[in-house]
Design brief:
Number of helices: 7
Shape: elongated
Order of helices and strands: HHEHHEHHH
Structural class: mainly alpha
Largest sheet: 2 strands, antiparallel
Strand content: 5-15%
Distance between the termini: 38 Å
C-alpha cells in the first residue's frame, strides 16, 4: 500500500499536481507508520491471550529447533519433538503465553494478522479524516498547482494529475478568479 501511494505521489508531483502529491505522501507515511501501531496492538493482544491461558497453536518441531541453540534444552521442554528415529518432522501444540521464547513467539504470531488489519484500518481512517479536515490547504495547493501548470503549458491546468474531476464523477474544478 505504501509503495503504491508513493508511486501515485511521485506521478502527481511530476504533473505538478501539488495538492494530490500532498495527499498521497501523507497516505504513504500513515500506511508506513501502521507497522508501529501493528506492533503495539500485537503486544497488547498477546498479553490478553496470555492472561486467559487457554490458547494453543501447532508449531513445527523444526521451527522450535531453530529457536533453541541447545538441543538438550529443546528436548527437555518439548520431548514430543524427538521421535525414536531422531526426526523432527512433527507438529506439537505450544501454549501462547509469556513464559518462554517459544510461547512468546506463539502468542505474538497468533495476533499478527488481526493486529495488521486493525492497524491498517485505523491508519486508513485516520489519514482520510485528516485530509477531510484540511480542505483549505488542499484548495490552496490546487491553486498553486494550477498556476504552475499554466506556466508549464499543461493541457488541463489545475487537473493535470490524478484528480477526482478527471478520473471520477466530481464536478470540473474551476480556478478562482
Amino acid at each position: 500500500m505504501a509503495t503504491v501511494a508513493a508511486l501515485l505521489a511521485y506521478f502527481n508531483i511530476k504533473r505538478l499536481q501539488i495538492d494530490q502529491h500532498r495527499a498521497w505522501m501523507l497516505r504513504t507515511w500513515f500506511y508506513a507508520a501502521s507497522i508501529i501501531t501493528l506492533r503495539i496492538i500485537m503486544i497488547i493482544s498477546a498479553q490478553i491471550i496470555s492472561s486467559t491461558s487457554g490458547y494453543y497453536r501447532a508449531l513445527p518441531c523444526k521451527q522450535l529447533a531453530y529457536m533453541y541453540d541447545d538441543e538438550q534444552d529443546l528436548q527437555s521442554k518439548f520431548p514430543q519433538c524427538f521421535a525414536a528415529n531422531g526426526t523432527t518432522d512433527d507438529f506439537i501444540a505450544v501454549k501462547a503465553n509469556f513464559s518462554g521464547s517459544a510461547q512468546v513467539s506463539n502468542a505474538l504470531g497468533m495476533t499478527f494478522g488481526t493486529a495488521g488489519w486493525l492497524a491498517l484500518f485505523l491508519h486508513g481512517i485516520g489519514i482520510e479524516v485528516y485530509l477531510r479536515l484540511t480542505p483549505r490547504e488542499s484548495e490552496r495547493l490546487r491553486v498553486v498547482s494550477y498556476e504552475r501548470q499554466l506556466e508549464a503549458g499543461f493541457k488541463h491546468p489545475g487537473s493535470a494529475g490524478i484528480t477526482a474531476d478527471r478520473w471520477g464523477d466530481a464536478n470540473a474544478w474551476k480556478p478562482p478568479n
